[in-house]
Amino acid sequence: MEAKTTCRWAALSLSSIASVFLPDLLGREDAQYEHKLVAVSTTGSNERAQIWFKDNKIPDPQGIVVYNSWQIMLEQGDFDIVYISTPHPLHYEQVLKALQCNRNILVEKPATMNALQYRKCIELASQQGVVLMEAMWTRYLPATRYLQEELLPKIGKVRRVYSDFSFPIVGPDLQDTSRFLDKAAGAGALLDQGVYALTWADLALNGVEVGETNVAHASSWSVTGRPSEVDDINTVVLTSKGATAIVTTSMTIPGSSKPPFYVRLGAQKAAPSVRIEATEASVAIPFPPIRPEELYVQWYGYAHLNEDGTEKNEIIKKPISGWGIWYQADVIAAAVFNKQPGVIGAQESLRVLGWMDEARSLAGITYNEKLEQV
């Protein structure tokens, strides 16, 4: 068997999402590349980093260089791709610095606070001849790719989409100091969860042919009983030529907030999270919409009916290996090692960021203007 190419990663921040992504990625036998963590930056001590490596079962921790300055890591580190997983208000500054250092970048979603910031990042990435990618990992899962490549071309014209990502992040046990309630850290259901729900709307409306899509309506209710005004229950309506998408989020309902975070994220829900209704068939995607493994298809176009004229139902299973965040790593690694510089998914990311900008404006969701500056 031919040896795999090694892709060396640097992690800018030992964040909670990094503690999911990196263990999911490193040493994975079914990946196309041999992914290896070689550098991290942390505001804590070297000892804290070693504890983090141990707690997350990071292989070969003695071979990882620990930096106490993310700037120095970007300037001096020896790695192929940097993974940025700090709170999103910090992304713009850190991505710009990484690009100035000619780094290939995978940055957590949302990539920046607004579309204008990311547009500036895209321009610089193109000038520098590196690879930049927003970590919208759901787009690269087997079920998502099957939907886009096999189902959407067959189900006819999409007419209506329902896309929801709601689950109880905020409960009575969550402290007011949590990142999920900190506006300075970009907290809010629209940016934290709406980025996923709007991505599904984009896949449904623009997965086959890209057309003009506009935000027709946006409304928002804040989390109650908390000192900070953080958006919670959001509704965004998108209109495209002959199609409508209704996108919703909540960080308080439905479900119990008692179980651990990732248990809540895997709980069964009474209704599907995403429903795509087209002229020939509809596709339903169960909760959680961030990592689908099954697609429920109901065919009702005349060419697909049962003999008695009733709808034909189909369940398509596309199992995920591991948690699934690692699939995107192979995508950016392929671009890096095949010397294909550019911004992966640039237009998709810009569309979603732009819709969030419009929705925030219509719904009155605001952040400190310093977080939005270009």
UniProtKB/TrEMBL annotation:
Residue stretches spanning the membrane: none
Keyword Amino-acid biosynthesis tagged: no
SUPFAM superfamilies linked: Glyceraldehyde-3-phosphate dehydrogenase-like, C-terminal domain (SSF55347), NAD(P)-binding Rossmann-fold domains (SSF51735)
Enzyme class, UniProt record, top EC level: oxidoreductase
Entry superkingdom: Eukaryota
EC number(s) on file: 1.1.1.179
A molecular-function term among this protein's GO annotations: D-xylose 1-dehydrogenase (NADP+) activity
Reactions catalysed, as given in the entry: D-xylose + NADP(+) = D-xylono-1,5-lactone + NADPH + H(+)
Domain Gfo/Idh/MocA-like oxidoreductase N-terminal: 30-134
InterPro entries: Gfo/Idh/MocA-like_OxRdtase_N (IPR000683), Gfo/Idh/MocA_domain (IPR050984), GFO_IDH_MocA-like_dom (IPR055170), NAD(P)-bd_dom_sf (IPR036291)
Signal sequence, start to end: 1-27
Keyword list, A-Z: Oxidoreductase, Signal
Domain GFO/IDH/MocA-like oxidoreductase, first and last residues per copy: 154-261
Family membership noted in the UniProt record: Belongs to the Gfo/Idh/MocA family.
Name under which the protein is recorded: D-xylose 1-dehydrogenase (NADP(+), D-xylono-1,5-lactone-forming)
